[in-house]
Recover the amino acids of this structure.
């Protein structure tokens, strides 16, 4: 089996974020590391976060820092990763890529103790960068640069020496182990680093923050420690202040600072420090000539706990949440109003230690949230099912944790936001929008055609029906458009109505009894097809008159036609495409010399329904790709639901490089729309699709919206780039959201207070095993006006658990049943049996059975219940009062975390020891293990693939498949004892047979759920996985040996020609724990279009192909 | 020290041991071995952010706190060292 790994949704969680001016100039930008992805974000003027660029680096980003060379206007990015290299990147705004400026190799790779890259510190003047390179016998907690103006660069580090503690068996040395703050100086003249100063520091110290120096401040560092913030500098006494604590915090818990941001202006600076509970404090320093005199910590606001915070110079705070959605806040104030404050001058030391300062969290005062960026992190569980009976199944994922957890329904496709829906008097057949003048920014009319009438709506502050527009309203319309500079055209079955700007109306009538059936126009040229197959060609002349130019008789009725857009600076376009019912598309010339000559013919698989010429300026770089030559594509929607696309030669009209794609069950109708000012294509099949340019590439993506009949682009005051469409008897106006990450949209159904998953519709009779248990958070005071989502649950003592089971109706997002489990007992040592009531809408407790361990896995098996309780696999029968033990096997190594069954086989996953294949013999009432794995795998997810095969994922980010060899499998099935005799003999304390690893791949992220599903109607099945960082990926099986060959070779060339950005070796990364086996990395192959054209051609030549142009 | 000594296996090993923490030697005790393994594990958890996040979900702590806890545990990962047999 060969698989193709493809990320469907890039990771949404953020490891680290930095801000600066990466494209140069004054624009504030943010670079975020999402594990293995580096992206550049920019908040626009309205405060909406846009992703400019996102690139997978095939490595693990451990740290990020930015620096600016003295006097320069542009920031550079330093990346510490698992590559054993440090890389300096520059954002290239012309090509919209990160360019590698410098790469320095240390040697070893991986995220290990001996590999530098975990900590980076930058000299504030941009002269040096320090990397922690594992000093021997020392644990380093944090490093930072010290701002000392233009003197020699100095770096600070919190260090803990463990050499004595390792030797001393009495524990005295360990007890006395002391953290030190050490300053290192880089002598720029000698190019040498020396240890300059070292001083004891609070043993709870965990983080350092640079204090501005030189002319801007007192220099030195802030040491954040548990409960304290301490200002330290060489030759300066410590200034210490206590971090205020929440009044309801249990006494034994400390307060730790987890993220920090500095704001610096010419006249002042302050720090924002966030605690592990989400409270932000503003820290200010009083300083003068004799150094710092006072350190103040004032309560600022509370937002969800962040991994990184960035204060932008434009007055925004970017908060990269560690779990759940990220947010962009705007500063309303900078915390100048009085609030709870602790200061170094009022610090009180008593016998029990320092006097704490208490505060109560309150609503946001200084910040206001203006945008949020979706984050699925962490996906704890995922089920794919088609509960809504749509064309493709939905992905139900449990995201976030604690109070910010949610059940999100994901669908492939772009998100849309519906702006208006209005009912119409009949069932419309088509809709158009027209401007009154070419130069107008907004549309003037919406014209809706019915079976026997036309309705005209004028667009103003409101949209209302008008009758003075000049359009004929007693007939259906076939096309409505602006023609020439300022006149309107309405094509109806009996002719063309041409409405001049001054209100004059010219009417052209069809000859005889023939009617118009199809129309194609491009603003200057019009072609109509009459019944019987006659084409009549009109052009707009100099005076704005519509003149008949040519007639042409086709052999049969015309199915559809379209005229290519007029090239810039030309008077007319040369190409007319005509689709006929004999399964052909013809390109006809519109040039005066060879008017109506057939230039080329293309036969297609089914009669075309709709044609559209699209000029695409796809590029290999650049934010807009404007400087690249356009390609003209002819798109055809065929009656069998296929979108057919071919390249039209701009000069000869020859067709080449055709591709098809199945879009849905209905013939796609194609419409031209604009996305971010560039031409795009809307295809309406049984679901709508959008073909558009995203980050320089043409993408065809479904929209998460219902089936539409007809659509037109729509532009008005309120909505610059919208779409107006008809479906049923409703007129719908919507906009397409430019989702950052690509192709999955999440619909947040409910911010479930506790994580839980309802497995009812899944044919699973188990019960509690889908519940995530939640530690702490025993919230009793529900009167609290502050929402837990923002402030978190109050912390409870350890070993307190709350959990609940919730049954949700995904359609209404309503909880139909909520069972809270009482007294800690629920999560532990009990198996509850529930009965479904009311069609599965609610649950009723039948009975509880106490067991001796934590039952982590349950599964139904032949009408009985299999439970994994610690290392015991047990079979239960349902009794009246409790479960009845039938049979058990105690030979599992550690703890059973998953059970799956198929026929009489049982597939058991151990937390540490991978899969065990078991069998149950009914006649002897015995469970026995007949096969196991040779590799210790720390399972986090498992899925049953087929009779002999299991898929699993381990804690270290690997996905693997194991299979029982065919001969062993046959032998066991044929053996009358079912291999039991062999089992009794055993082999080296394990099972007699071993499974073989057939697939192995390092994803680089902890996979928490696996499931097999088919996401394309009629398409093959693939294995989907969800990860802790909030990404979704798929493993697709190859169906032919040729494809495997092609993709493995492409992967090989890509590895050679396009090594990962941060210096990690691609093969080594995908084989980080085990050698990669039989998986082609699609994420690497999909980077092919981002290569320079000559490199693309070179690789394509070696593969005997030609590079495509879409 | 003779020039040839620099290239013999022992001095190479010493060089490795000086450069890379955790490089074993013939007299490595069980305790020292375990301590190294534990410290390497904690360093790996801290370095792999998704794993750190996974642990912090399980323990209901913030990621920052979890990282700090792991660092603190690196001091005495296996408890106190055993008493030395003087030889």
């Amino acid at each position: 089996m060969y698989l193709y790994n493809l990320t469907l949704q890039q990771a949404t969680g953020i490891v680290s974020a930095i801000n600066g001016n990466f494209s140069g100039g004054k624009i504030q930008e943010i670079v975020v590391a999402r594990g293995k992805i580096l992206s550049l974000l920019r908040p626009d003027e309205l405060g909406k976060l846009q992703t400019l660029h996102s690139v997978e680096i095939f490595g693990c980003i451990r740290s990020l820092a930015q620096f600016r060379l003295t006097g320069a206007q542009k920031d550079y990015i330093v990346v510490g990763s698992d590559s054993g290299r440090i890389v300096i990147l520059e954002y290239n705004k012309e090509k919209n890529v990160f360019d590698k400026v410098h790469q320095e190799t240390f040697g070893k790779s991986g995220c290990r103790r001996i590999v530098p890259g975990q900590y980076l510190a930058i000299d504030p003047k941009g002269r040096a960068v320090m990397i922690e390179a594992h000093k021997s016998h020392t644990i380093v907690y944090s490093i930072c640069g010290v701002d000392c103006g233009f003197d020699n660069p100095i770096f600070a580090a919190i260090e803990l020496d463990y050499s004595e503690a390792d030797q001393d068996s009495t524990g005295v040395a360990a007890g006395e182990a002391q953290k030190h703050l050490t300053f290192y100086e880089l002598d720029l003249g000698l190019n040498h680093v020396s240890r300059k100063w070292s001083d004891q520091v609070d043993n709870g110290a965990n983080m350092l923050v640079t204090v501005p120096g030189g002319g801007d401040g007192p220099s030195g560092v802030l040491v954040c420690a548990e409960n304290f913030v301490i200002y330290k500098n060489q030759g300066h006494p410590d200034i210490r202040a206590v971090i205020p604590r929440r009044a309801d915090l249990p006494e034994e818990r400390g307060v730790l600072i987890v993220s920090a941001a500095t704001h610096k202006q010419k006249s002042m600076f302050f720090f924002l420090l966030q605690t592990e509970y989400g409270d932000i404090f503003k820290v200010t320093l009083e300083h003068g000539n004799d150094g710092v005199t006072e350190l103040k910590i004032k309560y600022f606001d509370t937002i969800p706990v962040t991994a990184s915070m960035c204060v932008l110079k434009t007055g925004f705070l970017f908060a990269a949440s560690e779990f759940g959605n990220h947010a962009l806040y705007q500063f309303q104030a900078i915390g100048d109003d009085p609030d709870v404050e602790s200061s170094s001058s009022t610090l009180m030391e008593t016998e029990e230690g320092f006097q704490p300062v208490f505060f109560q969290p309150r609503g946001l005062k200084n910040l206001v949230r203006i945008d949020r960026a979706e984050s699925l992190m962490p996906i704890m569980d995922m089920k794919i099912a088609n509960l809504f009976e749509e064309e493709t199944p939905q992905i139900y994922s449990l995201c976030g944790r604690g109070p910010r957890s949610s059940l999100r329904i994901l669908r492939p496709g772009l998100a849309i936001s519906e702006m208006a829906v209005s009912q119409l008097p009949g069932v419309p057949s088509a809709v158009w929008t027209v401007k009154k003048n070419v130069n107008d920014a907004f549309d003037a009319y919406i014209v809706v055609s019915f079976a026997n009438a036309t309705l005209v709506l004028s667009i103003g502050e409101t949209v209302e029906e008008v009758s003075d527009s000049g359009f004929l309203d007693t007939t259906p319309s076939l096309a409505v458009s602006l023609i020439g500079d300022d006149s309107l055209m309405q094509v109806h079955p009996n002719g063309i109505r041409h409405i001049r700007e001054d209100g004059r109306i010219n009417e052209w009538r069809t000859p005889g009894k023939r009617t118009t059936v199809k129309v194609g126009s491009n603003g200057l040229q019009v072609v109509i097809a009459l019944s019987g197959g006659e084409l009549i060609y009109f052009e707009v002349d100099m005076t704005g008159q519509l003149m008949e130019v040519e007639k042409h008789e086709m052999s049969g009725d015309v199915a559809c036609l379209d005229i290519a857009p007029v090239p810039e600076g030309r008077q007319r376009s040369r190409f007319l495409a005509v689709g006929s019912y004999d399964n052909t598309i013809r390109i006809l010339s519109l040039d005066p010399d060879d008017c109506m000559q057939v230039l080329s013919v293309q036969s297609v698989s089914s009669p075309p329904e709709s044609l559209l010429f699209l000029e695409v300026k796809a590029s290999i770089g650049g934010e807009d790709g404007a400087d690249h030559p356009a390609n003209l594509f002819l798109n055809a929607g065929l009656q069998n639901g296929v979108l057919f696309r071919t390249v039209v030669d701009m000069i000869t009209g020859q067709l080449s490089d055709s591709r098809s794609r199945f879009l849905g069950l209905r013939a796609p109708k194609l419409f031209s729309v604009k996305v971010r000012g560039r031409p795009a294509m809307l295809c309406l099949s049984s679901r709508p699709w959008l073909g558009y340019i995203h980050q320089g590439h043409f993408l065809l993506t479904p929209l998460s919206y219902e089936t539409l009949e007809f659509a037109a682009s729509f532009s008005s005051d309120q909505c610059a780039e919208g779409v107006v469409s008809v479906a049923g008897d409703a007129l719908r106006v919507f906009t397409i959201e430019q989702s950052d990450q690509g192709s999955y949209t999440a619909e947040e159904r409910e911010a479930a207070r506790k994580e839980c998953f309802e497995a009812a519709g899944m044919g699973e009779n188990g019960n509690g095993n889908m519940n995530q248990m939640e530690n702490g958070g025993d919230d009793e005071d529900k009167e609290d006006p502050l929402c837990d989502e923002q402030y978190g649950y109050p912390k409870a003592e350890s070993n307190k658990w709350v959990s609940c089971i919730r049954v949700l109706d995904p359609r209404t997002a309503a909880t139909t049943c909520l069972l809270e489990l009482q007294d800690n007992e629920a999560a532990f040592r009990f198996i509850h049996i529930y009965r479904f009531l009311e069609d599965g809408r609610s649950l009723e407790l039948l009975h509880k059975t106490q067991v001796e361990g934590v039952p982590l896995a349950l599964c139904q098996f032949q009408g009985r219940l299999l439970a994994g309780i610690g290392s015991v696999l047990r079979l239960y029968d349902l009794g009246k009062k409790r479960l009845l033990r039938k049979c058990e096997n105690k030979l599992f190594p550690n703890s059973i975390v998953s059970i799956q069954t198929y026929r009489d086989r049982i597939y058991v996953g151990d937390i540490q020891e991978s899969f065990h294949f078991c069998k149950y013999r009914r006649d002897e009432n015995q469970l026995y293990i007949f096969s196991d794995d040779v590799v210790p795998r720390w399972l986090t997810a498992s899925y049953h693939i087929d009779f002999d095969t299991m898929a699993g994922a381990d804690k270290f980010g690997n996905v693997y498949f194991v299979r029982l060899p065919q001969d062993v499998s046959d032998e066991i099935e044929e053996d009358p004892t079912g291999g039991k005799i062999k089992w009794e003999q055993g082999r080296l304390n394990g099972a007699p047979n071993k499974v073989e690893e057939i697939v192995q791949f390092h994803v680089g992220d902890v996979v928490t759920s696996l499931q097999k599903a088919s996401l394309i109607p009629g398409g093959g099945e693939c294995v989907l996985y969800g990860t802790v960082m909030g990404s979704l990926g798929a493993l697709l099986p190859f169906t032919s040996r040729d494809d495997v060959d092609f993709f493995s070779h492409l992967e090989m060339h890509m590895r050679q020609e396009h090594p990962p950005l941060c210096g990690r070796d691609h093969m080594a990364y995908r084989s980080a724990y085990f050698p990669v086996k039989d998986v082609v990395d699609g994420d690497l192959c999909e980077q092919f279009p981002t290569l320079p054209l000559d490199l693309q051609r070179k690789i394509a030549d070696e593969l005997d192909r030609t590079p495509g142009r879409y | 020290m003779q020039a040839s000594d620099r290239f013999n296996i022992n001095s190479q090993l010493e060089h490795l041991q000086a450069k890379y923490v955790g490089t074993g030697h013939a007299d490595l005790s069980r305790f020292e071995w375990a301590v190294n393994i534990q410290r390497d594990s904690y360093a790996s958890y801290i370095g792999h952010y998704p794993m750190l996040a996974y642990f912090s979900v399980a323990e209901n702590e913030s990621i920052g706190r979890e990282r700090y806890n792991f660092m603190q545990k690196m001091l005495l990962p296996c408890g106190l060292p055993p008493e030395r047999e003087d030889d």
Remarks:
- The mean pLDDT of chain B is 86.
- The two ends of chain B are 27 Å apart (CA to CA).
